[in-house]
């Protein structure tokens, strides 16, 4: 035994043992399967359009200011300053790695409603995907996928909102994508779970968030999936989105909406730069 340990130590393999143990635990911890998000999406699709309607005049305006941002768990003391400045005129805020402090609708006076889909939990720290809005959503669902190695959840927050002066509803999908995978099975399954929602919903769609598209295959899976559901990407010029290996992680996709302004704001308060867009829906 001592000889074996000496060989492992001298070859540098000893330090790999704890890492291998963590990976094996993650693989054997048996989180819910990749079918969980699909089952939740099926249930959510059954409820789309079924919520009671509002008076026709009530709803989100036809010109929308939207902020999309991974706030890195609010770990930087300046995140709140940037959040208040960037979200001052927003009708919708789509946040990833959001905290309970960000969930407080009192931070921004125009934001009255929030839907939170919990993801990572460690002690008292609960983070997840958060969509904040100026009007109450008609529907909210959480679609949970799992990191296969770490056995931690990644969530899609699905909401449906009325649009003012119409009977049309806006579907929003606020996504934090699976990150640490060897192959593409879990990542692709998380995208494909959204398929039934996009096929069922009749009306405009806004899908945005941290897609973790750091590899060419990931970018291709997202682009092909969105195109197959008639969603188009929002382009940014200059493109200051946070990148890994020169590939952007954050995206905004639209159906039956038009972006008349888009920008990326450089900040030091998160490891992701926030995206801001002005969208128009034309009846």
Overview of the structural elements:
- The structure is a single chain.
- By secondary structure, the protein is of the alpha+beta class.
- It folds into two domains: 1-30, no CATH class; 32-280, Deoxyribonuclease I, Chain A.
- The chain is built from eight helices and 14 strands.
- The protein has helices at 2-11, 16-28, 35-47, 79-86, 100-103, 185-192, 195-200, 216-228; strands at 63-70, 92-98, 113-122, 125-133, 139-146, 153-162, 169-176, 205-210, 232-233, 243-244, 247-248, 250-255, 258-264, 275-280.
- It has a six-stranded mixed beta sheet with strand order 3-4-2-1-14-13.
- Strand 6 (153-162) and strand 7 (169-176) form a beta hairpin.
- Helix 6 (185-192) runs parallel beside helix 8.
- The longest helix is centred in the N-terminal third of the chain and has 13 residues, at 16-28.
- It starts with a helix and ends with a strand.
- Mean pLDDT is 85; it is low at 1-31.
């Amino acid at each position: 035994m001592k000889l074996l340990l000496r060989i492992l130590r001298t070859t540098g393999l000893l330090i790999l043992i704890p890492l291998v143990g963590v990976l094996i635990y993650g693989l054997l911890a048996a989180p819910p399967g990749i079918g969980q998000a699909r089952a939740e999406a099926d249930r959510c699709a059954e409820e789309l359009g079924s919520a009671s309607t509002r008076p026709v005049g009530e709803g989100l305006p036809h010109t929308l200011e939207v902020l999309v941002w991974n706030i890195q768990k609010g770990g930087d003391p300046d995140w709140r300053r940037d959040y208040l400045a960037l979200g001052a005129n927003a009708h919708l805020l789509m946040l990833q790695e959001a905290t309970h402090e960000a969930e407080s609708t009192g931070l921004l006076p125009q934001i009255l409603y929030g839907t939170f889909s919990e993801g990572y939990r460690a002690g008292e720290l609960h983070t997840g995907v958060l969509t904040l809005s100026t009007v109450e959503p008609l529907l909210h669902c959480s679609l949970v996928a799992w990191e296969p190695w770490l056995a931690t959840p990644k969530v899609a927050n699905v909401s449906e909102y009325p649009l003012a002066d119409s009977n049309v509803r806006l579907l929003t999908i606020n996504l934090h994508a699976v990150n640490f995978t060897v192959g593409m099975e879990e990542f692709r399954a998380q995208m494909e779970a959204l398929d039934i929602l996009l096929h069922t919903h009749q009306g405009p769609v806004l899908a945005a968030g941290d897609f973790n598209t750091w590899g060419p295959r990931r970018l291709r899976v997202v682009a092909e999936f969105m195109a197959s559901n008639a969603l188009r990407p929002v382009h940014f010029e200059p493109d200051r989105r946070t990148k890994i290996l020169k590939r952007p992680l954050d995206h905004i996709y639209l159906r039956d909406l038009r972006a008349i302004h888009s920008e990326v704001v450089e900040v030091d308060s998160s490891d992701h730069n926030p995206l801001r867009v002005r969208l128009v829906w034309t009846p």
